[in-house]
Amino acid sequence: MTSAELPAPYGAGAGTTPTPPAGTPPVPPTGRIRIRHLQQAKENGTRFAMLTAYDQYAAQVFDEAGIEVLLVGDSAANNVLGHATTLPITLDEMILFSRAVSTAARRALVVADLPFGSYEVSSQQAVESSVRLLKEGLVHAVKMEGGAEYADTVRALVRAGIPVMAHIGFTPQSEHALGGYRVQGRGDASQRIVEDAVALADAGAFCVLMEMVPTETADAVDAAVRVPTIGIGAGPGTTGQVLVWQDMAGLRGGRQAKFVKQYADVRTVLADAARAYADDVRAGTFPGPEHTF
C-alpha cells in the first residue's frame, strides 16, 4: 500500500481533504500502521492514539477500535504482575506479553519497552535485547527510557534496523534516582528536556514520548524536533497521546494520576458479573438446561 492510497490523515492528499467536523476521529488506513504514518500525522497537524496492551483480547479490541499504536509497556509489571514498580519485569516476560499482542494486532503499530537492565550496560546489550523483542516478541519497534546520554545507543539500534521510540521526562525505571513520581522539566530544567529530545531525534529516534512534563516544556520539545511526539501527562500539544489501558478503562482501583481520564468503569462491570455468576452457582441456577449436554 502506498501513501497515496492511504486516506486522511496519513495519505499524501491529507492536506487537501476537507476539514471534518470538530470531534470527528480521523479515518485510519486499512493496512498496517507504519512509522511513516506517524510522521505524516506530525507533518499534517493531525493526531494519533496509543494505548498499552499486554494480552490478545485487549490488543484485538483496541486494534479494531482504531488505536494506531499499541505499547507493550514494562508497566505490565505493576498492572498485570502485581509489582509495585516497573523495575522487576524481565526481558523474557516482556517477550511473552509482546508476542501475545503482536500476534493479535492486525493493524496497529506494536512497540515494546526495553525493560530495566536490558540495555543500560552497553549498546551491544541494547541491540541484543531489541533483536529478541523483534524476533521473538514480533514487535515492530522498541521504546527506551533515557536522555541524551543514550544517543549513541539509539544510533546503534537504528544502524541495526531497529526503530526506536525515545522516552524522556519522568522515566519510571529511574524513579529511585528521581526521588519518586515527580513532574520533570519545570523551570530551568525545561531546557534539558528539550536538549534530550533533540539529541535522541538526531540520533534516529522516530518518535519522542514525554511523561509528566509541563505543557510549556512539551510544546517546546514538539517545536524543536521534526519527529512526532507522544504525551502522557504532557498536555495537549503532542502529536499523540498514550494511557495505560487499565487506567483509561477504569479497571485499576485506587487513586488515579492527574493526567488520567477514565472512559469506562470496567472494574464495576467485572465485579457485578462475578457476583451474579457466584449467586447463580450458589443458587443452583447455573448451569441451566441450556448449558448442559
UniProtKB/TrEMBL annotation:
<feature type="compositionally biased region" description="Low complexity">
    <location>
        <begin position="7"/>
        <end position="17"/>
    </location>
</feature>
<dbReference type="GO" id="GO:0032259">
    <property type="term" value="P:methylation"/>
</dbReference>
<feature type="binding site">
    <location>
        <position position="113"/>
    </location>
    <ligand>
        <name>3-methyl-2-oxobutanoate</name>
    </ligand>
</feature>
<dbReference type="InterPro" id="IPR015813">
    <property type="entry name" value="Pyrv/PenolPyrv_kinase-like_dom"/>
</dbReference>
<feature type="binding site">
    <location>
        <position position="74"/>
    </location>
    <ligand>
        <name>Mg(2+)</name>
    </ligand>
</feature>
<dbReference type="GO" id="GO:0015940">
    <property type="term" value="P:pantothenate biosynthetic process"/>
</dbReference>
<comment type="pathway">
    <text>Cofactor biosynthesis; (R)-pantothenate biosynthesis; (R)-pantoate from 3-methyl-2-oxobutanoate: step 1/2.</text>
</comment>
<dbReference type="GO" id="GO:0005737">
    <property type="term" value="C:cytoplasm"/>
</dbReference>
<dbReference type="GO" id="GO:0008168">
    <property type="term" value="F:methyltransferase activity"/>
</dbReference>
<feature type="compositionally biased region" description="Pro residues">
    <location>
        <begin position="18"/>
        <end position="29"/>
    </location>
</feature>
<comment type="similarity">
    <text>Belongs to the PanB family.</text>
</comment>
<dbReference type="Pfam" id="PF02548">
    <property type="entry name" value="Pantoate_transf"/>
</dbReference>
<feature type="binding site">
    <location>
        <position position="143"/>
    </location>
    <ligand>
        <name>3-methyl-2-oxobutanoate</name>
    </ligand>
</feature>
<comment type="subunit">
    <text>Homodecamer; pentamer of dimers.</text>
</comment>
<feature type="binding site">
    <location>
        <begin position="74"/>
        <end position="75"/>
    </location>
    <ligand>
        <name>3-methyl-2-oxobutanoate</name>
    </ligand>
</feature>
<dbReference type="InterPro" id="IPR040442">
    <property type="entry name" value="Pyrv_kinase-like_dom_sf"/>
</dbReference>
<keyword id="KW-0808">Transferase</keyword>
<feature type="binding site">
    <location>
        <position position="113"/>
    </location>
    <ligand>
        <name>Mg(2+)</name>
    </ligand>
</feature>
<feature type="region of interest" description="Disordered">
    <location>
        <begin position="1"/>
        <end position="29"/>
    </location>
</feature>
<dbReference type="InterPro" id="IPR003700">
    <property type="entry name" value="Pantoate_hydroxy_MeTrfase"/>
</dbReference>
<feature type="active site" description="Proton acceptor">
    <location>
        <position position="211"/>
    </location>
</feature>
<keyword id="KW-0479">Metal-binding</keyword>
<protein>
    <recommendedName>
        <fullName>3-methyl-2-oxobutanoate hydroxymethyltransferase</fullName>
        <ecNumber>2.1.2.11</ecNumber>
    </recommendedName>
</protein>
<dbReference type="GO" id="GO:0003864">
    <property type="term" value="F:3-methyl-2-oxobutanoate hydroxymethyltransferase activity"/>
</dbReference>
<keyword id="KW-0460">Magnesium</keyword>
<keyword id="KW-0489">Methyltransferase</keyword>
<keyword id="KW-0566">Pantothenate biosynthesis</keyword>
<keyword id="KW-0963">Cytoplasm</keyword>
<comment type="function">
    <text>Catalyzes the reversible reaction in which hydroxymethyl group from 5,10-methylenetetrahydrofolate is transferred onto alpha-ketoisovalerate to form ketopantoate.</text>
</comment>
<feature type="binding site">
    <location>
        <position position="145"/>
    </location>
    <ligand>
        <name>Mg(2+)</name>
    </ligand>
</feature>
<dbReference type="GO" id="GO:0000287">
    <property type="term" value="F:magnesium ion binding"/>
</dbReference>
